Amino acid sequence: MARGAARARALVACAAGALALLLETADAQTQRTASQADRERRSETQRAERLRAQASAAGREVRALDTRLVEATRRRAETEAAALAAQERLTSVQSQIVTDTEARKRARAALEASLITAAFAERRIEPSSVRAGIAARALGPAYQAEQRRRTLAIAAARSTETQITSEQSILADAQAAIAQERGDIVNMLARQRSTQTRLTREANTAQQRAQALAREARTLRELASRVQQASRRGTTTPRGPNVIPAAWMAPAQGQITRAYGARDPGGAAAQGVTVRTNSGAQVVSPAAGEVAYASSFRSYGNVLILNLDGGYALVLTGLDAINVQVGQTVRAGQLVGQMSVAASSAPDLYVEVRRGDQPVDPGRWLSARGLTAEARVRAG
């Protein structure tokens, strides 16, 4: 019986050891999975950043090609207008040549007729013949002058006709060259737009992958901590007092409706403040930094997390639109988002500041920037 009890104790000890080993293995596996998820999220975010940069470059090329196409179209319109004007001038000159030619023929015929009349008048002695001869001899020089004038006009018109014809040839060559250029630009535009669409689609896919990895975080606190820790990987932990720099700008103007540390009935203390803004208010970055997260997150709606200089992380929720992308560098005062313009009441912006793993009270900073608190607002 004693041997049976000892044997039972030994089996219990073995089972306990196996359970401990199993739990230890599971914990290690969980840590490896979380670490792997972090690495994958960073990798996908970096890939999305690269693809968006390439898509942005393709977009700039598209805009440049669009400008060239507009310019080529303008030049084509100018050459077409010049060609039309040249054709009108040519038609006018050719019509003038016909008119001058007919007038010269008439002047020559009149001159010949006057010479014949004068010649016959010299053979007769009738008064009427004498008068006709005198008139014919008087009009002869005028007919000769008219004939010479028409001849010179025709020569000038022929010269102008030659110049216009040469101009038309040059314009036709220019139109052909511009048409070829426009065709080349249209083809390049199609290729660049296709490239831009593909890169944007791939960047969106990478961004969605990063967002999926971020969804592994259970709360907003955990999300902010994860993205901040990932960005600090390989850097030293920030030191010094957790006081928001005085140079920071306010992310938006408004009134503080819920203070830092305030508690709802049965709820935890607020780790940030709620600011009631104007409808459609612009949201800016308080300081220089980098976008760590820019997307929707669980029930919080749009969430923007900025890693700012000095080891601070700024968490903003309640935005209607986000104007920046993950990995993008931002300047102090740069527009990063916008509040809703369609809300039935003034929209609320949640502002949370973290340094390291600790939240920082933003109340004094925002008050110094002109944001007042409602009389009923107080910390819990």
Shape: rod-shaped
Name the average pLDDT. Answer: 77
CATH topology value of the largest domain? Helix Hairpins
CATH superfamily of the largest domain: Methyl-accepting chemotaxis protein
Using the coordinates above, name the CATH class of the largest domain: Mainly Alpha
Query: What's the domain count?
Result: 2
| Radius of gyration, CA atoms, in whole angstroms | 45 Å
Helicity level, as a percent range? Answer: 55-70%
Helix-strand makeup class: alpha+beta
- From the N-terminal CA to the C-terminal CA, the straight-line distance is 64 Å
Q: How many helical elements?
A: 4
Describe the structure.
With 380 residues, the protein is of the alpha+beta class. The protein folds into two domains: 36-213, Methyl-accepting chemotaxis protein (Helix Hairpins), CATH 1.10.287.950; 240-373, Distorted Sandwich (Glucose Permease (Domain IIA)). It is 60% helix and 15% strand. The chain has four helices and twelve strands, in the order αααβββββββββββαβ. It has helices spanning 2-121, 127-214, 220-232, 363-368, and strands at residues 254-258, 273-277, 282-284, 289-296, 302-308, 312-319, 321-322, 329-330, 335-338, 348-355, 358-360, 372-373. The strands form two sheets. Strands 1, 2, 4, 5, 6, 8, 10, 11 and 12 form a nine-stranded mixed sheet that branches. A three-stranded antiparallel sheet has the order 3-9-7, with no helix packed on it. A hairpin with a 5-residue loop joins strand 4 and strand 5 (302-308). Helix 1 runs antiparallel to helix 2. The longest helix has 120 residues, at 2-121. It starts with a helix and ends in a 7-residue tail after the last strand.
